[in-house]
């Protein structure tokens, strides 16, 4: 399960890599991004980081690290016994903390994570993955025995697999409680399982309501209007409780094992690719699904296991420990504003056609696309606030676009045209 290296074919253009504690190498793309190494957490595999009740918890192979309220200091718990291969998730439920111990089972803590006891009474299998709470009941999705439920007394676990079928898969990698239902990502065929509260039975979405064949769902995030699913290759959003899903690809490269978190205004996702590299993306929660993901930064040599938000910072759990960065002006990729609404070109990179999105009055501004030498390759007046542009005749390479509005300064961005 703990796969540190994925062999993914790289795109034809290069990313600017940033190391924790230094700024991004691409000021135009990612501004000034400064990463802080959380030094009191070991420089080792940190498989989970969770914000539980306003306090951060980070988990390694067999130990949990508990922060103070401002995450300025961390305290290590006693080691879990028996020692698991890794702790993938933590949850607070009815005054206790619970942890998944991959290779062993479930652990619980009654003293805020300082000490843990093995609490797998009745638990089937040895591969718990993710927790979810719904209507006062705690569930855990497993990699080998479907979904299991903590009994009402909180003293043992029972199988909760009515409607599931061993012929499909009992392997779950993610589970989420939404406003309307419990949704689990199972197997490697884009299949979803949706719980019917009235019958206590799972509805397996083999075709309608699944993601796509060949995809494994590794994480879910709920934001106002959408349930987000992050897979081994793509990001999807559903506005109808998982009945249908929309691919939200613009600006996000293909990668492996996406993880995500959300603030009050933005959703953040991590995509691993190549030889242990991660790209951190974000996008406004209120933005239309057609809006592109923005690259926050690229971390060379870092594999991301999990993300969490607390105290105005995004925390990234990696194979080299825990790092964090501010979600204030230092992390936001500037969306150039003319004068109050942003403009951008998507998809980016692209082949053939792109869309220029802007908040200007049509006809009041000019768009130009130039190559690296400054030669104008495409220009014209803006006639729509969502204007298609034909770039099919442009040679592959990096171009620079500018948009000038009446009474404003010129603002620029970068567009990569790929090989057809």
TrEMBL record:
Origin: domain of life: Bacteria
Higher taxonomy: Bacteria, Pseudomonadati, Bacteroidota, Cytophagia, Cytophagales
Protein name stated in the entry: Secretion system C-terminal sorting domain-containing protein
Keywords: Signal
Species name: Dyadobacter fermentans
Keyword Signal: yes
Pfam families on file: Por_Secre_tail
Signal peptide: 1-18
Domain Secretion system C-terminal sorting: 345-409
Xref: InterPro entries: Secre_tail (IPR026444), WD40/YVTN_repeat-like_dom_sf (IPR015943)
